[in-house]
Amino acid sequence: MADVKRNYNATARRERAQLRRRDVVVAAQELFEADGFQATTISAVARRAGVSAESIYKGFGTKAALAKAVFDFVIAGDDEPVPMVQRPEILAVQREPDVRRKIQLYVAGLVERQQRSARVQILIRDGRHGDETLRETWQTLLDERLVGMTMFGRHLLETGDLRPGITVEEVADVLWTYISVELYELLVLLRDWSPERYADHVATAITAAICRPSV
Fold first, then answer.
1. Furthest-apart CA pair in the chain: how many Å?
2. What pLDDT score was predicted for residue 214?
3. Are 181 and 125 in contact (CB under 8 A)?
4. Of 69-83, 104-118, 186-200, which range is least confident?
5. How many angstroms separate the Cα of 64 from the Cα of each of 56, 97, 135?
6. Is there a contact between 128 and 137 (Cβ–Cβ < 8 Å)?
7. How does the average pLDDT of the chain come out, rounded?
């Protein structure tokens, strides 16, 4: 009985800690988007989240690391410890046999993720010019995006339906470019394209750039 109680207590503590962490991340997201990165203090985040500033420093280390945690939260849509490649929408892309449909499915999920994450990405991207601590965070986002697109590019190449002679590096570069937050910013945020129009444009452009011509 004692072991059961200890296990229960440990589980309850982990759940409480996860909830507190989520509260901090959500509070940081709200303040970053409302006031900007530089104007937002850890103390302000702590007040909104109902925790101590010391606990935020202990849990995240720096404000830049907190910004990265906010990005990870909004890109996934939750704080579950499940890698993107193991999530249902990505598994559906992997199972789809048609390469053009794979691209369409991936882009549909991408647009949903960009709707949640674009403003945070832009905040980190632009904030790095005024705050050195964000430079590494932005570079990490770029590097992670390239790693993900290299994996996806290799998967697409394995279908045998990409244009002859194209390399995984070129496929990754095309994907890395077309899924960038800059394109979303230009067309959706600045030119008021609908998400549906944007998704169709990106999927069509990627398909034209890397796939064999349709017979």
1. 69
2. 78
3. yes
4. 69-83
5. 12, 40, 9
6. yes
7. 92
- Tens digits of residue pLDDT in 151-189: 999 999 999 999 999 999 999 999 999 999 999 999 999
Q: Using a CB cutoff of 8 Å and minimum separation of 24, what contacts does 146-151 make?
A: 146/172, 146/176, 148/84, 149/173, 149/175, 149/176, 149/179, 151/85
**54-104: pLDDT as tens digits:** 999 999 999 999 999 999 999 988 877 777 778 888 999 999 999 999 999
For the record, the structure tokens of 108 come out as 């549909």
- CATH code, 1-61: 1.10.10.60
Measured CA to CA in angstroms, residue 147 lies from 115, 143, 144 at distances of 21, 6, 5
Task: For residue 82, give the 3-state DSSP assignment.
Answer: coil
Using only C-alpha atoms, the chain has a radius of gyration, in whole angstroms, of 20
| Cα–Cα distance measured from residue 91 to residue 89, given in angstroms and rounded to the nearest whole number | 6
- The Cα–Cα gap between 43 and 77 comes to 25
Nearest to residue 137, comparing CAs of 80, 72, 76, 41? Answer: 72
In Å, how far are 49, 65, 166, 171, 210 from 203, measured between CA atoms?
39, 32, 18, 14, 11
